Structure formats: C-alpha cells, structure tokens
Amino acid sequence: MLSIVLPVVALGGTGLCMGLFLAYASKKFEVEVDPKVEEVLNILPGVNCGACGYPGCAGYAEAIALNGAGITACSPGGPEVAGKISQIMGMTVDISGPKMVARVRCQGDNTKTSKVYDFQGELQTCASMMLYSGGDKSCRFGCLGYGDCVKACPVDAIVINDKGIASIDEDKCISCKKCVITCPKNIIQMAPIDKKVTVLCSSRDKGPVARKACTIPCIGCGICAKVCPVQAIEVTNNVAKIDFDKCIQCGLCATKCPTKAISNDVKEIKKAEIIEEKCIGCTACSRVCPMKCIEGAVKEKHKIDESKCIGCQLCYSKCKFGAIKINVEPKQ
Fold first, then answer.
1. What is the reported pTM?
2. In a domain, 7, yes or no
3. Is 287 among the domain residues?
4. I need a surface site. Which of 81, 188, 191, 280 has the fewest CB within 10 A?
5. pLDDT beyond 90 at 272
6. For the segment 45-60, what is each residue's pLDDT rounded down to a tens digit?
7. Handedness of CA 307, 327, 252, 263 (dihedral sign)
C-alpha cells in the first residue's frame, strides 16, 4: 500500500511545487501592459486586415499607445474610430473627408470582350492566368474574373458577377486595399465614395487596338479632357484619368465620351437658376459657362437654358452678387 501512496504523494507534491513556482514567476516577470493599449484595441474593428501597416489590430494598438503611431491609418474604422482613439490618447485630429472605397476600372465583361483561348487546367486564378499570355481575355488590361480579389476581401464586398467581371459593393467596402494589392492587373483603385464619375477602363492600347479588344474602351481621344470645365482630366498612356480633388461631378465627360468608357453614377441633377432681383447683368456667369447656356447682354437680366445646364456650378462660384442658386433634383 505504501509503495502506491508514496509515488502519488511525490507526484502531487512535485505538481504543487511547480504550480507555485509558475505562479511566482508569472508575478515576478509580469510585463505591465499600458491600459491604453487595451482601450485602443477595443475601439479598433478587429478585422486584422493589415491596411494600417501593422500586424493586425493588436499590433496597431500597441504602436499607437506605446510608439505614437498615427491614429488615422485604420481604413475599416474610418473617421469614427479615429475620433474615438483621439479621445483616448488626448489628441486632436482632422477626420474630415469622405470614405475611400475600392472601384474596378474595367467594364470589359464577357459581353464586351472575348476569350482568346480556353484554359483547361485545375488552378484557375487571376495570378496563374497571367502566366499564360497575360490572361484569356481579348483585352490584356481587363479584369480576368477569376476572383483573386474576392478571396482577398475580408468582408465579402466583392463578387464575380454573372458576366464574369468583379463587382464591388461600396457600402460593404472597408477600404482595406487588399483587393488593390491582390489584383495582378492593377485595375482596382481607391476612390472617394461620394465621387461617382469614374473612368472605368485601364487599357493603355491605342484606339484602334483597344476597340478590337473591347466594345467600350477608353481610346485616349482626349475629348473628356477638352470639355471638362475644371481641367480635372488628363490623358496619359492612352487612358483618361480623373483628379477626384478637382472633379465637380458635372458628368459632361461621361456625356461626351464616344465609347461610354466613363461612368456617371451621380444620383442627383443640379441646375443653376438666376435670381432676377439680384442679377445686375455683369455677364461674369455667361463668360465662365462651359455650355454657353446663359443668355443676356450687359446690364440686362440673364436667363439660363436649363436643357443645356450641366450643374457645374461655375457660374454660382463666379457670381459676386448672389444672383444664382443651384437647384438639386433626384436623377430620374
């Protein structure tokens, strides 16, 4: 009996001693954690997307609380999270500006482009297809539609639609940029969510070649740049690019684009109207109007042809007498 009890007691005593030692060691060598790290971590969304440049939300929380890292790097959290962190850290920060979202600069789906070969391999991803002549689409700059971006998105904001091209739900997008980094064609860009006029093409081919590859390509004709009233568009490498900081969303470029490569998803229509009792007939508005839709001689009350007005608001900005107002109506 004693031969059985002694080993049990010895084993139990050893376990007890080890437990006491570990408890002592955990207290002795405990690393104190700044409470602000936990507070910041609780504010962060927990997506662990890495868009901030740190290894997950915990790494970013430590960088903020212990190393003074910037507090606006969390794209998924946006201004709301940055504002809460600023309160914890006792800082002030400019959190103005619209949410940035990912946008696919391509409309070349299966109805507008064609397949140049039929790949039968098991591994079908955008990255792997790039190894075979840059992909199987007739446009070598277009979306391949094999869903690498879909797999990379941590919030299921991207799908490959029924026409074989990536489509992004901007309301779900958390601005993590993972799809931007993953896309081997580099055709996904970040854009302000409130800017709805976009060049949806990435082709750098010259016009005739681009037209053979896709039915709605940007052909680099430069018409959009010429008609833009605020010089927000430039054509580089045969493709138009919009400066979102300058763009006033008048949509004139989309209207004039001969191939419909520019999308205008603005949900409202703006029209200028003359306030007659304030108008002194200075003609400043008519001189700046890109559509020549304002009529009136010097010192006469001016009138605006609403059928031509694109709502660019240049006349509104130019008028020093408050004689112009902008009416906003939902887009039909």
1. 0.75
2. no
3. yes
4. 280
5. yes
6. 888 888 888 888 988 9
7. negative
